[in-house]
Amino acid sequence: MRIVLGVSGGIAAYKAALLLRLMTEEGHEVHVVPTNSALNFVGKATWEALSGRPVYNDTFEAVEEVNHVLQGRLADLVLLAPATANSLAKAAHGLADDLIGNILLTATVPVVMAPAMHTEMWENAATQANVATLRARGIHIIEPATGRLTGSDTGKGRFPEPEDIWSQTKDLLDRGAAKRHLEGKSVVVSAGGTREALDPVRYLGNRSSGKQGVALALAAARAGADVTLIAGAMDIAAPQDPNISVVAIESTRDLLDAVLHHAEGKDGLIMAAAVADFRPAAVTDEKMKKQDGNTAPTIVLEQTEDVLRTTVEQRAAGQQLPRVIVGFAAETGDADTTPLEYGRAKLQRKGCEILVVNEVGVGKVFGQDDNDATIIFADGSDDVPIQGSKDRVAVEIINQLADAFA
Fold first, then answer.
1. CATH number of the domain to which 75 belongs
2. Helix (H, G, I), strand (E, B) or coil at 207
């Protein structure tokens, strides 16, 4: 495999040399592209000695080969490690003032970035927005580790160990990021949360960020599928991918209508949206205002439509809906029943082929970058537990969808 290893200017650049050694020892052809800042930490001689290849970092080197375009075209993988806050910002905004910036713009292969920076920089709103943008474009961001940073500081932002970065990268590729096992298939994915209006400015909603649904849409597109993303309220941008069309919805009723319309004639449906179970029974045309006396209105709720079960029922009634439907169950569990047990009961009630069960709660799943789920099957197949980044979970779900098609 031909790999472009981009190295940006952080103290963790010395660990990238160990990462380079891991890749070359497995027989991969690695082309190192450091930034000027990175060369302050590790010089060209080191990169050339370890890679066995000339090292370029300027757009105007090897001009006769059109190197700034050639590298991106020939690569099988682009790995930026470490990725500083500055390099993430430049990549998110499409800046190409050096060779690695040009390569990132020309690469049509999987791109993986391993951030490393101080905790304050990682948690800064600008960095988080840039990470969200890059993920929405299909770039895989490996979460930084927590531990000792430069000097005496400790926190999240530490460069993961090279063995862990390489293991995650290989796992990503092996699990299907570069496989086209959905070629020729059409898949509908729902994402985000639904909002149920109370008045013109207020609504009932939930904590869904849309991250898992977007990761699923991107994983399906990378696997070769033609994807329709039905997007509710999301904290992240919809993906910018030519193989993904986006349909915006707001309420549960909107979602049901969109699913029944856009899923007709499709091969697969993944219902990752967090659907509101209840909505206000009455919606006012004017904003509800506070009254004197500290009184508050009584809001009567009614159940919303059951999108998953209705879709399965419509399929049974003869509508040409996907033969493989994947549902999601966000469960909390209680003293008597585990989330997985609730999920099994839901799978029987809903009638879909596959159900992804998440244990949710404050700080769990909703809005997080990681997920911990169990995939269960109506045909009695063995459960598939999966945890890790939402990108990784998405690839596993897409793999199971492909297996169901087969």
1. 3.40.50.1950
2. coil
